[in-house]
Amino acid sequence: MSHLVNIGDTRTLISHPASTTHRQLDDAQQLAAGVSPDMVRISVGLENLDDILWDIDQALDKASR
């Protein structure tokens, strides 16, 4: 999984809208747009589903430590 802002790729991408695509907005504007500080966006690509799920599982495991 790549941490990128652009979308439209065939690979699975993950981004943090509050610090990338919506960073120009203040906190209230972000919330009004449906963007919370802890939100991540996953755009699922064309990789093997098991690979995508493994990547997500590994990331969540690391984040929970």
TrEMBL record:
It comes from the Bacteria. It holds the Pfam family Cys_Met_Meta_PP. One of its GO terms (molecular function) is cysteine synthase activity. The keyword Disulfide bond does not apply. Keywords: Pyridoxal phosphate, Transferase. Its cofactor is pyridoxal 5'-phosphate. One of its GO terms (biological process) is transsulfuration. GO terms for cellular component: cytoplasm. Belongs to the trans-sulfuration enzymes family. PANTHER family: HOMOCYSTEINE/CYSTEINE SYNTHASE, HOMOCYSTEINE_CYSTEINE SYNTHASE. This is O-acetylhomoserine aminocarboxypropyltransferase. It comes from Limnohabitans planktonicus II-D5.
